[in-house]
Amino acid sequence: MDLALTEQQEMLKSTARAFLERECPRQLLLELDRTETGMSPALWSQLARMGWLGLAIPAEYGGEGAGLLDTAVVYEQLGRGPLGGPHFSSAVLGALIVLECGTEDQRREILPRVASGEQILAVVYTEPDYGWGPESVKMTARRDGHDYILDGVKLFVHDAAAATHLLCVARTDQGSDPTAGLTVFLVDRTEPGVAVRTLPGFISGLGEVRFEAVRVPQWAVLGETGVAWQGLSRAFLRAIPVLCAYKVGGMEAVFELAVSYSQTRVQFGQPIGRFQRVQDHIIDIVNHLDAARWATYEAIWKLETGRPAEASVHLAKAVASEGFYRACNSCHEVHAGIGVVRNYGLVLYTKASRSLYSYLGDPKFHKRRLAAALEL
Amino acid sequence: MDFELKYSPEQEAFRKEVRAFLEANIPPDLEEPVDPADLSYEQYLMRRELGRKLGERGWLFPTFPKEYGGGGLPMELAVIIEEELDRYGLSLPPFYNTGGTLGAPCILVWGTEEQKRHFLPPILKGEVRVWQLLTEPGAGSDLASVKTLAVRDGDHYVINGQKTFVGSLHGADWLWTIVCTDPNGRRHENLSWFMIPADLPGISMTPLDLLMAGGEGGASPGAKYTVYFDNVRVPAFNLIGGENNGWKVATTHLELEHGGAGSIRRNRIVDRLIEYCKTTYRNGRPLSQDPDVQDLLVECYIDAEIGRLFNLRNYWLRHTRRPRTYEGPQASLHRKVSGLRIAEAILKALGPYALTNDPAWDPSGGHLEVFHRASIVATHPGGTIEIQKVIMARRIGIGRAVREEAGTVV
What we know:
The complex is a heterodimer. By secondary structure, chain A is of the alpha+beta class.
């Protein structure tokens, strides 16, 4: 047993941390949060140059072939930022879907462009009957000669406004088995009939995508028609722990904010960290942080070593989503007034903890899956 | 024991009078913005006008003595005014006025006769809007450590310092302010309260950019500011309750702010949530028929009912002049912690819908998104969760030989 990162991974971690500290000061993150895409072209190019848009992409397709653990190490630092924008949707989730569902030609065509940042993917999956299981995809793609016609509404889609291309999941066959009949279409976001709208509220980067009689050719089908669920579920399983690592990084930053404030804020003649009620909040944060951290990394280890990993992945996502949400709440309790001043920065994490709470399945969804994996 | 408010024929006659008055005097275009930050100046002025009209009849502060501009009414009739206003989604007063609702009782308890005659009528008649100014950058939970300094100079005091997380949209007429009058004095024996005209030279303010402007005691301010005092000369007459006696005055102020005022209103958010879930279909059935959603709704409903009962009890205790100990902060604590629970339950029940106010996808009209942000912010104005617990413990007498007493209220 050895729970430590390798020397190389430690280097990757400190490189990533140094990059975030140097290139993504709080002021920039606050400005990016006010944009529709959460990203600037300059920073996007930098992420590409660092190789971070190719972490999950094998070297043969122009990526870094970094492996899940290395990817998670970087994502933990991105979560510390917290650096928003379409990097996860495109370079992790989107890339894994192309890898799992696409043909060899499609991988060679798409993935190098994703790694270079030239192409940005958004995964267009969820609908008004929101959910991440196969049964939640109800939108249909109708066959018309050699083409398909897409019609319908997708909702709470992450990063669609930032994307150049959409990986739209639709139903091409109706049957009693919800896992059968799903197809992924690669659609140019500027295609006539595609309308993307970012949703307002206490969320970042979530939008509505409308398809109105959008004609897509046969070659836009990723891989084979009707069998996408198998590839999608493998991609989800591998992407989820990376998203969890992002939340772990966010929680770590929130923990440090709380500790530091408790040591410097003086009330009643002493640092507030001396008060047990304040200590309780910080203890809660670190417990959420460590629970999410070790659940996430064990799930990654299982995936990377070919062990049965489903239960661990579901456990990690349930724990990380709830943990990040509650850690932010606790950090607000420690800070009171100053914590809700937007420029202070805590609100960025709080908003991220809400925006990402349901991404790739909310805690309830994963607890149900965990129950199934445990054959309860 | 009787939880139902019952009304005599005389009281029902009074209700008719109130209802007719409100029908005649509430403008048809008076709207409650979903997000208090959206309150327009015109809407604010309408509320002030309504306040003045209520004030003329003594209905703005119905239980306060008539001789100072109050209504001199018993609790039973005051309740009727609040119930009738509640039908319009309004409360008393119909605008943010913490320096009035909390300052006026302090003046009544601690002011001289001359001060009562000078300061109370404009407040009770709705002629002035007053902000409370307590928090400073270095004095939040530890209010007694305020550093804003008032130094006596002839028949004036000269005030220097700053207050933060204070105020509301569209300004104030007066500022009900706690300051230090003896920097070398002992803790709790060096504070004083001033009622300060907001237009005095040397007063300036800058807005804060917040997740949401939290309301002390639940009032919705819509905005918060930092207020600066730069050599502001205030008449010595405006010092209320005696020099260096401010902590005693504060016990009255804080008792009311910390939930001791009570309320007959109920939190509407759970009603809205239940209505939302009964009328919104997901996966072919109303959300409210999903057993998991039902569990969440019932938990929220219980929280709302307990909150209503705590507030109702405190209203009764206050207006029947019964002794109280920990009940005020208990209601305040419940409002704060149940707010966090309800916000989380809404997210679990509705998913990302809970977080957007998009007109196409939010049947609540923005209420749930505002509530989510508000629940995070509401945990600290008017005392943090921790401070409410500290006060409760002292009042119960945990770990102390002598129980702390509740502040005197009216």
